[in-house]
Amino acid sequence: MIEPVCCVADRRREKVHQNIKMDLSWKVKDVQMRAVINQKLIETGEKERLKELLRNKLIECGWRDQLKAHCKDVVRRKGIEHVTVDDLVAELTPKGRELVPDDVKKELLQRIKAFLAQQASI
Amino acid sequence: MSFLTLKFPRIAGRIELENCISRPTMSLSGCPHVANFKAVNGSSPYRLILTYFVSCSTQAAVKRKAQSCLCHVCGQLDLRLHSCLYCVFFGCYTAGHIHDHAKATKHNLAVDLTYGAVYCYSCGDYVYDQEFEAIAKEEKTKAAKFVGTPCSVHAFLSWEVTASEAQLLRQNPKRRKITSNSTIGLRGLINLGNTCFMNCIVQALTHTPLLRDFFLADKHHCQMASSDQCLVCEMSRVFQEFYSGLRSVHIPYRLLHLVWTHARHLAGYEQQDAHEFFIAALDVLHRHCKGHNGVSGNNPHLCNCIIDQIFTGGLQSDVTCQSCRGISTTVDPFWDISLDLGPSGSHSKSTLSSSSTSSAPIPNADLSVDSNSSGSSTSSGSVNNGDSGLLSPTGFEDVPTSLDDCLRRFTRPEHLGTNSKIKCSRCHSYQESTKQLTMKKLPLVACFHLKRFEHSNRFRKKISTFIAFPHELDMTPYVSSHRRANGIKNQSHSSTLLSTSDNKYSLFAVVNHHGTIETGHYTCYVRQHKDQWFKCDDALITKSSVQDVLHSEGYLLFYHKRILEYE
Q1: For labeling, which of A79, B171, B216, B441 is most exposed (least CB within 10 Å)?
Q2: Which residue(s) pair with B448 in the sheet?
Q3: E strands present in B27-180
Q4: Surface of A (8-27) touching B: CB under 8 A
Q5: In angstroms, rounded to a whole number, what is the distance separating the alpha carbons of residues B103 and B97?
Q6: What InterPro entries does this protein's entry cite (chain A) (predicted)?
Q7: Sheet holding B414-415, edge to edge
């Protein structure tokens, strides 16, 4: 590890290092937490229900049609022989994320929060 | 990321849906590497991976999936996890761990664990295999049944071309793409002798989105003995004519003849009322739709024919006995809402202003109509005051100037007067009572009829006052549950949340009457492509703007619900 030298720069470096360490421990906890939540979501079938809800909402608001049209554009532009799913994913992911309406995000967030609250109370 | 499940190359491989210039690279037999795999191992490895890690249909499988769906390299769970088809090794796609595995072991097939799609490293893309697809579909259906969302599974499966549809597409090679400036759907109608009352309604009906979808999807299956007597069949033909792309004038003589034979009071060359025609047309269409209502067979009042599905709403009428406060509630179906335009004194509404002795307490008392009102009169009173915009008597005495005014007046509590005492079902005596109409069930298409034609024994005249109507209308204030929620505070917030977001309507057609009560002419504004407006004046169609529409007089206003709920 870092040698203890009484020098301002070193102290600063140490501080940064500590911060990073703290960050890392947070990250580990975060990952664990996510894993637990994910496990719960799957076990209870809530994940499938959420996916279904999201799918319906996205169809309803026209998101799916928009993205489909965009896919077709990409395929037409590149020619069907020169396009892979990876290409489409790369081109469409940012667009797809951007186009999700705030309402839909909010509703899903609310559902997930409600689910977590309900899980925590058990 | 539903685009992963795009059935692009596959559909294109079967038929040329869009005029794809290039031939698809993939043959119908699919990827040779998958074929090799299947020859050696069969399709059971794929099914196993699917049942345990993609579409689970047993509790044990769900548990296993929840615990083991992690990347074997980095432990992450949401970087597009894939499983090796050969050895069930899990690796992230985004971080490349599954790629490393494939390279190291020469296992060239991997299954996407979110959707079940198969990636072939030799082909360098996701591949389609008919057998695998069939397995995936089967397992997905099972899983959906297990989770309990079976109805939507069938509703949102992507369209797969059947043999007969493919045949049809081959026989009709002409394709038409609807662009934002396309005029498909706009056709003038010849006036067959004072038939503008019919033409304007036909224009409004043909531009009703849900009705259009129904007819263009060929959903009408005629139940009549002879199809040329069926008005629904004729409407179907009219829709075909309207959306055929032809720009010439259409001559609706068959339609007129059918209307004459089925609604005798409209026969002849006299001028007729467009509203009367609209109701008559819906009635005949509804009658000719009979046979569609399979589900609702147990309930004779509830028909699920397309007309009732789209146009029928439920009007709740609460009659409150003034002595015992008992409420008797009835719900009646309606196709349209007729709104009074005259001053309150002139019509049935006169009862409220005339009975001045009791009129003062009415506005407050009436609103606490809910069953617990007498006990908690103070609390409900304060709530009502907060909602004074809706209920205060001010403005009701005046002539309404907007659609909202009219609707407010329509749904306010109304004193039935001393002359019309009704027997109360609770205290079994004849008492004065108040009556309030609210919307129990909102229709998908709301038609408002502004009563511009006044027929009284003293005079007949047309009321030409300007009534402002909005482009977008929120019906929430007029819904029964909302009115009741005002009195009952313990309503869960979810119901209010629903009612605020889901009762928005947008204007899509306006019928106008020009002239006097004796003689005049009807025209219709219709909306196309979300925000383009056109004025239909019999055979003549001109481009118009939303301002023109909103500044027109308005006789029949057609609003379409913006968000449709699943049933």
Answers
A1: B171
A2: B337, B557
A3: 81-84, 90-92, 109-112, 118-120, 125-127
A4: none
A5: 10
A6: TF_ENY2, TF_EnY2_sf
A7: B327-334, B313-321, B433-441, B414-415
Q: Are strands B118-120 and B125-127 parallel, antiparallel or unpaired?
A: antiparallel
- The pTM is what? 0.64
Q: Which two tokens stand for residue B166?
A: 């493919």
Q: Does A89 touch chain B (CB under 8 A)?
A: yes
Question: Which of A63, A80, A95 should be substituted to probe chain B, the one whose Cβ sees the most B Cβ atoms within 10 Å?
Answer: A80
The DSSP bridge partners found for residue B557 are: B448, B510
B536 is catalytic: no
| Contacting residues of A for B76, CB less than 8 Å apart | 31
How far apart, in whole angstroms, are the C-alpha atoms of residue B320 and residue A69? 56
Contacts of B8 in chain A (CB under 8 A): 71, 75, 80
Q: Which of residues 146-205 of B touch A (CB under 8 A)?
A: 146-149, 152, 156
Domain boundaries defined on chain A: 1-44
Give yes or no for a contact between B327 and B422, defined as CB atoms under 8 angstroms apart: no
Burial classification of residue B302, based on how many CB atoms lie within 10 Å of its CB (0-12 exposed, 13-18 middle, 19 or more buried): middle
Characterize the bridge pairing of strands B445-450 and B337-339: parallel
- Per-residue burial over A29-43, b if 16 or more Cβ lie within 10 Å, else e, is eeeeeebeebbebbe
Contacts of B432 (CB under 8 A, 6+ apart): B322, B323, B358, B415, B416, B417, B418, B421
DSSP B63: H
CA distance A81 to chain B (A): 6
What is the DSSP secondary-structure string of B340-357?
--S-GGGSTTHHHHH-HH
Cβ of residue A75 closer than 8 Å to a chain B Cβ: yes
Q: How is residue B409 written in tokens?
A: 């007046």
Contact B25 A80 (CB under 8 A): yes
CA-to-CA distance for B242 and A83, rounded, in angstroms? Answer: 39
pLDDT in tens, B447-502: 999 998 887 777 778 888 889 999 999 988 888 877 654 544 334 444 444 444 57
Burial class (CB in 10 A: 0-12, 13-18, 19+), A66: middle
Contacts of B133 (CB under 8 A, 6+ apart): none
Active-site option among B56, B84, B196, B406:
B196
Residue A3 in tokens: 């040698």
Along the 567 residues of chain B, how does pLDDT read in single tens digits? 333 333 333 333 333 333 333 334 444 557 889 989 999 999 999 999 999 888 888 888 888 888 888 888 888 887 889 999 998 899 999 889 999 999 999 999 999 998 899 999 998 889 888 889 889 888 888 887 787 765 554 555 667 788 888 898 899 888 877 787 788 889 999 888 888 889 999 999 999 988 998 898 888 888 777 778 888 889 999 998 888 888 889 998 998 888 888 888 888 778 888 999 999 888 888 888 875 444 444 444 567 788 888 898 899 988 888 888 888 888 888 999 998 887 764 444 333 323 333 333 333 333 333 333 333 333 333 333 333 334 444 444 577 888 998 998 888 888 887 777 777 777 777 778 888 888 888 899 999 999 988 877 777 788 888 899 999 999 888 888 776 545 443 344 444 444 445 788 999 999 999 988 888 899 999 998 878 999 999 889 999 999 999 999 999 999 999 877 755
Binary contact (B126, A79; C-beta < 8 A): no
First to last CA, chain A: 44
